[in-house]
Amino acid sequence: MHGEPAHPDHPLDRGPLAVLARWTVRRNRLVLAAAALFAVVAGLLSSGVSAHLGAGGWIAGDTHSARVRGMLGEVPHGGMPPLLLLARSTGSVDDAAARSAGTRLVEGLRHEPGVTAVDSYWTGPLGPAAKGPSPPAPDPLLRSTDGRTALIALWFDADHRDDLDVTERVLARAARADEPLETRAAGQSAVTRALQLHSERDLLRMELLAMPATLVLLLLVFGSIPAALLPLAVGAVAVTGTTAILRALVAVTPVSAFALSLTTAVGLALAVDYSLFIVARYREETAGGLSHDRALIRATRTAGRTVIVSAGTVAAALLTLLLFPLVLLRSLALAGLSVVTLAATASLLIVPAALACFGERLAGRDILARRRRAARSSARWHTLATTVMRRPLAVFTVTGTLLLLLALPFRDVVLSLSDERALPAGSPVARAMQDLRTGFPQVGTEVDVVLPDWHPTGRDGAARLDAYARRLSALPGVQGLRTATGTYLKGAPVGALCDPGAAPAATSPCTGLRRFTPPAGTWLVISAEPLPYSPRGIDLLHGIRAQPGPAPALTGGVTAEFLDTRDVVLQRLPGALAGVALGTLALLLLFTRSLFLPVKALVINVLSLTATFGAMVFIFQQGHLRRLVGDFTVTGTTDLMLPLISFFLAFGLSMDYEILLLARISEAYHRTRDTTRATAEGLQAAAPLFTASAAVVLVVLLALAATEVAMVKGIAVTVALSVVLDAVVIRPLLVPAVMKLAGAANWYLPAFLRRRLPRHPELPPPRHPTAPVAPADTGAST
Prior knowledge:
The chain is an alpha+beta fold. It has helices at 16-26, 28-45, 64-73, 96-110, 164-174, 188-222, 225-249, 258-287, 292-319, 327-358, 360-364, 369-378, 380-390, 392-407, 428-439, 458-473, 535-546, 558-592, 596-621, 626-629, 641-672, 675-704, 710-742, 751-756; strands spanning 83-89, 115-120, 149-156, 181-186, 415-416, 447-452, 478-483, 486-489, 492-494, 521-528, 554-557, 638-639. The chain has three domains: 11-53 and 193-415 and 564-568 and 580-749, Multidrug efflux transporter AcrB transmembrane fold, CATH 1.20.1640.10; 82-186, Alpha-Beta Plaits; 454-550, no CATH class.
């Protein structure tokens, strides 16, 4: 492209992108002022968004377990209580002082807005107000094995189950408990609150760590401070705009707090990529002899096409996340689509406008120009590609074997869902949850069984429920069962049976069992001995589901929610992957006008990501290299969301680099008609860009990996490994080897497609294969 005449009718100066570039160049100050105003307004609108985001969304809706959760949520004392308080006494919880303090605390908690029911060791399920002539008998299940800790269970109003304000008020009151009691919070609501607080702190920490290091790297890449600020400006517009969109979305749909953390990292990464593409192309065009304005139009026309296709592939991958009925994944999809669209739009408007407004002061002054010219003149990437293509089969075999070896640990993946162990081990909530499992082993492993629209009416109904409860309680791993007919252990009732249709006396032990026959149906709660995600826990759930009941039964609880979510994800996954593949192939077919190159890009990216997933299992499931990535709790399992989210994020970044490389190789091939030469020249032009981008993205991801939440740390480290593997192995080694092996097949396109696909005026007319081509001036260094 160097030395081409600046003809006004040149194909590269026509088309929608060229029109946009001319308009942006003419109205550059207006564009910059509008962008600044947009960022300020979006920042104001998104103020306080973290307080409105939730840390949940891991459970699939529209499943049997979700239906059980919804049914029990409408019932006082229904299902697993969202909040548990461990009340620790200096002596025994049976002492008069502890009992008096506990009773006062429970009475105060019952009057908190949003709290619908409270159970405790001292007051029983109905409390002192309904105790009759004598206080209720203490429930031994709500006292720890050492006798010094009592459990207080709280249920919230269904409209407030996702509102952490109730939890905040309850914990504030519990902190003022009278001596000799000291309370600690456990349960899902406490874990959600802790995850939210950690996410907010981690986001601030990431910004404090990433921004200075990113600015230094951008200075090395762009060569001047004003130019280095361009990607940060584009990123600020994309991130603040997306945050404002999330703030608006929370009014109509739940949004996960994880979306905010990941959006910031992805937005900054894409802003760096897209800004770098345009600035580097602008420098290349000015070095080739074009005037300032013509270079801007040409850079926007060529690099802008790469930006649009890249954003399209990332958006296509994120769009498929909407297929999964999980709040977390849909939040990431909506946030990701917003930040990708805004990053691409901002880069196509802000970067040309800034270059037009400030000209040489912004992009032309390069404090590292001499070093950069020396690096380009060395043509080391050209030499590397040529060396690889001399032994393409050997390089392909070695790199392919390496990727397969890295992928091997993924065979041993054991899926689960995150629990309190996603928090740092020193977190008060994590310690309270561990003490809960130790002192109250029957709590937190419950399996809920609901018989919708069925009630044990009459003697026949009570007998059928009794027989069903006996069978369930006799299953291996069941510690006990409670339902409307009584309490069961090892296939037999404990004490006298209760008649669900009779009205028990106020002091009768059957009084507390009336909650098991709400209007929605009949409820049985099973205390399980195995941990929820363990193989024994899963086998027990299958055994429960296999037992015939008096009516069709639905199962809920932690294990059921995990299995239902896993089944839904695995059921929707093929469609999502097919959508990603078809969308990517279609865009790359239009971009490259080749059948082989899109398939090659897709296969290589999948191979690279599989290798990354093997490393993910090796580190986070098996617990290796913990000192390198930071401390976390090794659970022996991998969260179901970790490979799923990592795949879509890493796939988008990998395709970003692939599209840049394909664009440069395609341009070189249309000049030379020589695949070997085009590949070497394309790598020489693109490698400084994607390695510089990878370095910046790596800094952002490693700052995000400093998080204390294991899930976010896992995503950040996994995507960072993918970026490193992509920049070090895939693009400089595997791609040239495959291009050489494929030869002329790289450019094959059937005649019927050639006639139907639009021509690309961005590509210059072919040159004679022997015509010399000047090395590309990328304006970036590694």
